[in-house]
Amino acid sequence: MSSIIGQNLKISLFGESHGNAIGVVIDGLNSGIRIDFEMIKDELNKRRSLDNISTSRNELDELNILSGYFNDHTTGTPLCVTIENLDIKSKDYEGNLIRPSHADYAAQLKYHGFQDYRGGGHFSGRITAALVVAGSICKQILKNKNINIVSHIKSIKNIEDDDFVILNDEAVSRLNKNYFPVNNSEVKERMIALITKAKAEGDSVGGVVETFVLGVEGGIGEPFFDSIEAVLSKLIFSIPGVKGLEFGKGFEITKFLGSEANDQFYYEKEIKTKTNNNGGVNGGITNGMPITLRVAVKPTPSISKTQKTINLNTMKEEDLNIKGRHDPCIVHRALVVIESMIAIGLVDLHFSRYGYQWG
Amino acid sequence: MSSIIGQNLKISLFGESHGNAIGVVIDGLNSGIRIDFEMIKDELNKRRSLDNISTSRNELDELNILSGYFNDHTTGTPLCVTIENLDIKSKDYEGNLIRPSHADYAAQLKYHGFQDYRGGGHFSGRITAALVVAGSICKQILKNKNINIVSHIKSIKNIEDDDFVILNDEAVSRLNKNYFPVNNSEVKERMIALITKAKAEGDSVGGVVETFVLGVEGGIGEPFFDSIEAVLSKLIFSIPGVKGLEFGKGFEITKFLGSEANDQFYYEKEIKTKTNNNGGVNGGITNGMPITLRVAVKPTPSISKTQKTINLNTMKEEDLNIKGRHDPCIVHRALVVIESMIAIGLVDLHFSRYGYQWG
Amino acid sequence: MSSIIGQNLKISLFGESHGNAIGVVIDGLNSGIRIDFEMIKDELNKRRSLDNISTSRNELDELNILSGYFNDHTTGTPLCVTIENLDIKSKDYEGNLIRPSHADYAAQLKYHGFQDYRGGGHFSGRITAALVVAGSICKQILKNKNINIVSHIKSIKNIEDDDFVILNDEAVSRLNKNYFPVNNSEVKERMIALITKAKAEGDSVGGVVETFVLGVEGGIGEPFFDSIEAVLSKLIFSIPGVKGLEFGKGFEITKFLGSEANDQFYYEKEIKTKTNNNGGVNGGITNGMPITLRVAVKPTPSISKTQKTINLNTMKEEDLNIKGRHDPCIVHRALVVIESMIAIGLVDLHFSRYGYQWG
Amino acid sequence: MSSIIGQNLKISLFGESHGNAIGVVIDGLNSGIRIDFEMIKDELNKRRSLDNISTSRNELDELNILSGYFNDHTTGTPLCVTIENLDIKSKDYEGNLIRPSHADYAAQLKYHGFQDYRGGGHFSGRITAALVVAGSICKQILKNKNINIVSHIKSIKNIEDDDFVILNDEAVSRLNKNYFPVNNSEVKERMIALITKAKAEGDSVGGVVETFVLGVEGGIGEPFFDSIEAVLSKLIFSIPGVKGLEFGKGFEITKFLGSEANDQFYYEKEIKTKTNNNGGVNGGITNGMPITLRVAVKPTPSISKTQKTINLNTMKEEDLNIKGRHDPCIVHRALVVIESMIAIGLVDLHFSRYGYQWG
């Protein structure tokens, strides 16, 4: 509580990592939308990231449409999609040794031992697959309105990618297709080498995802509690592993003078700004410039290196050797989840303004 | 839309900078709470910050209790508090020259010219006084449960404060009384000198606020959409001028290896962690360690230096000389608003768990 | 908790009968609406019902617009309207003798003695004046879309009005202007005589309000929890004194056979039904026929006749002689509140569908 | 939109009559509840009502627990339960002939032809099975607090049952076990005979369900929008086929004088009222007396008798012969759905007051 979010587009999320299925109910979609399921599968594959640098858990992520879809179109009633959990190895987990920086202990305090601890239960990144389903549908709605979301991996540990140079349709399309999108291909190789090394050492690394939303008209969002930043931040900080978020220049803008930070307006067919230090948002409302943001994703807490922890049964210190199958890095997998959350938030804000038939 | 937030403690915010009054309706408070109005006045004074480095607009901020308070206690029904706008100089503003990095243009797109542009209207920092009223009451509720919120100004532009050394009751009390709380007094002088210089030059500076929440029990917050981080981020990004937020080590944690980032558990009367890189939150739920966070506050966009902008009537470029009374820095004023939002969020999350009679 | 309702048009209600002021915050209104305040005053006067058959409490009901209105138009930000309580005689009330069928005892259990008992506090019908303000604005929005709400007093105690014969514009306008709208003027005289008699005897009577909503397009409302009936029922059962609600033929439809109850479709320029036993709603969604409903309003519980009750201090039985100024009948005063709630609900449902810029 | 209801206990409903599955996500349940699935099956069987007087559609209603249940207890995370649709005969339905008093036409207007029309789609009474699952769990939570819900069929068409005489545990238990609970067994026989006759004639009948909630403490519910009556009415009017609802004496109370209608308080170990004309609710809040209410359920609109209707393709009148398998009466099946909705509403209101760990 609460696993439900949204005002006009409502998402209801459920599932545990090793339960029967995970899923999502999406309410508020217009009727008559033809969903591109191939695109959803592509997005899910980005999250699964079947490469050498990710977990070897291999879920097919086949979608079961339980409701809300008929004759190849949305009906306008709640769309429920589930994904079964198939490739489960529950015996890898033990509940009594709380894993550092995992939800194990917090969950214990909250649920008094009744939580499904297998594979992280409801706290598992696995659940985000259902968010990607919802987000993919929202991306399709946005794309029909010429709104595109594009990201790159800004950094892995201390290796930084170059900034976007030109964000034309070609670049967007290229980055969107990539499972590990980095502007500078040489940097990318170094990033992957670093992840591979962390894996070999039983360790993990984190990084920063940078995202641009292109094509959002001005005037979207609300003052105060439904500001673009407020709505997106709630969605993005819902993603496991996210520890920081900034819009526009973010923390760096605090180093500027006001005269340097202010985005000067000019007119060229429409009103634009010369810089975009505010990330396309003023007073919580879009100004027509791209929305830009960066998200800090922490190193995966599941590492195979031996760690010290407490055994909840004995309250004694013990060595912890996490077995299971884990990711040395989830930054590239989190990227598509971040984009999904942004898509969900933007559709909801547009629905609030234009009605949920906007799609 | 929407100026309402909260699930069990609901806040309904209203007002414009130069309208008749600003105010807030607070619904969900237990009956029988004796409010300390002197403390609210102190908190409001922190926000007003009547010093040489802030705006010369001088509002008495007298509270009018319209409802929900009887015989010196809350009644349990909606508490409406208003503050009249008295010290108004509306002629200082013109609506047609859009101020860079202000909400003027975005509001124009959203409200089609019907917005109250005087003094920033509903987008003015002035409105946050009503949030401080709500936040102060929530702080009192939290304090009764031995939950304290304490902050310092982590940085102004590139001047950084020292980290907290010891956060005992005395330190909390001392920082909480301070209108410009900085750990290192020499750093504080340099910060104020910098702000004074910016003011003299018709410019402005920003900075970072760092906040600790002490005494929150473990098990508060929810997975996903009502995680501590999600709930607090929505509230904090609602504050005008906030461009970044991080919990625990935040963006810096992405530079760590997993083995360095993980907070190792140990047992000493209760389960604690040796480090607190995750800022007291795992899986969206408190683990009993202090909640720590940092907020980036941008340089005030209102500066008296001449800037270029567009005149909405002519769509031509013009020189903009913002008159009015403005702040060369709002970081210290925003600090109490940030704390207020945190207090509101924490009370709401506690109410969700324990019922709104928890206070 | 909760004094807030609505999804896209949000109403936040506050106030006590003998507090400083009552009021409402309305969030979600489009910018640029010119409000007809004379019409609101007319609606408030219907609720005040300054005649011989109502309370002698005489409130001027002057509106204070605190926010959201600028240059004679809505700004699109929260509109806060308050009405001061002026004509207060608090000494008429005592808190310890709980009045039968009033909220006194239930409020005592809920608020543990901290409630403002004066004049019924937050439970007073007085608070509904703020709802009429919100409702009047919504009526204006609906009227601009050719949606009209019209009611008559269907019965006072056992005296029944005739059914509507023709509901043309003239009839709607005539009934809407009337403070005590009854189709049959001879019936009306008997109703008023009955109320006058009840008043003379220190007693009270109740009755039924019947309402038609004309001009609502088909397709409004949602299956299940946001069905027209569900949304309107929540609003209408929020009104103090309402004990029953039925749509279309309501309880009487249970006496019909299915073949009699079913509303047969026919085509005449558009699809219509020959009967309207379902009150314009099928499956929770409008079908284009008028929405029809009836509301049972109980006899005012405040009567001057001596009653027995319990003294909360002594737990002993005592005679209760309610002084104060009370209504022998509130049916005609409740009528405009019922219409207000319907208007609020319909605007909200339209906003959900078309966006809050629909108005 | 919106298929989600509740504040602290949230229900998210989905499914179509002839889709893959129907289901519900329940969020906000405490962890550690052992659910009695046999009891849920019994409740579902009441709704299925496998007798001669109900539809011959025979669904096994096997529950699939997708999430939120582990080691025989709730985990505290969202509980998703689905029921597959197995016994489907979709060819019985045609979409173009709109059935009188069904949602067909309203749905067409709303969803523009994309709705799943088979078996009524999302508007089918079938979906209420998912509500019964949620309601059954809530009933179990209430029962643990000695709160019991009991109903009888007050009337079928013009045949009326006797009032409850004594509502002791034995009577509650007896009525709760009955699929067709009527106080007077002779009346029951006449009711069933009437339904059988209607069935034989290809027609249908409706009736009234009367429900008592026993054991609710005083002080539950809120003034205005979350009054007991407001909350329950929204849930009850969400049920397909409901056209009227009254609390306490309901519409009949309008025939009383105030002095007759008022429920006089007396003291006997606790404060009680001599009569219960207000149905246990004053000012929207429980007063400790039983909550009483009556619900009007219309005659099933699906009848096999030939009816006239419009063909949406041709806009011409045609004869309609509804085939499919239909109920000559749904009153006894609706009864358990009504109770379920009441249970959901009461748990939510208790959670709002005491936290969602109240169960």
CATH architecture of chain A: 4-Layer Sandwich
Report the CATH C-level class of chain A: Alpha Beta
Name the helicity range of chain A.
25-40%
SSE string of chain A, helix = H, strand = E? EEEHEEEEHHEEHHEHEHEEEEEEEH
The CATH topology annotation of chain A reads as Chorismate synthase, AroC fold
How many helical stretches of chain A? 8
- Number of distinct beta strands of chain A: 18
What is the radius of gyration of chain A?
21 Å
Q: Oligomeric form of this entry?
A: homotetramer
**Which percent band covers the strand fraction of chain A?**
15-25%
- Classified in CATH, the superfamily of chain A is Chorismate synthase AroC
What is the residue-averaged pLDDT of chain A?
Answer: 93
Low-confidence stretches of chain A: none
How would you describe the shape of chain A? globular
* Main interface by residue count: A-B, 108 and 108 residues
Question: What structural class do helix, strand and pairing data of chain A support?
Answer: alpha+beta
The number of domains of chain A is 1
Largest sheet of chain A: 5 strands, antiparallel
Amino-to-carboxy terminus distance of chain A: 29 Å
Widest sheet: strand ordering of chain A: 1-2-3-7-4
Quick description:
The structure is a homotetramer of 359-residue chains. In chain A, 28% of the residues lie in helices and 23% in strands.
Observed structural traits:
homotetramer; 5-stranded antiparallel β-sheet; alpha+beta; 18 strands; 359 residues; 8 helices; Chorismate synthase, AroC fold; 28% helix
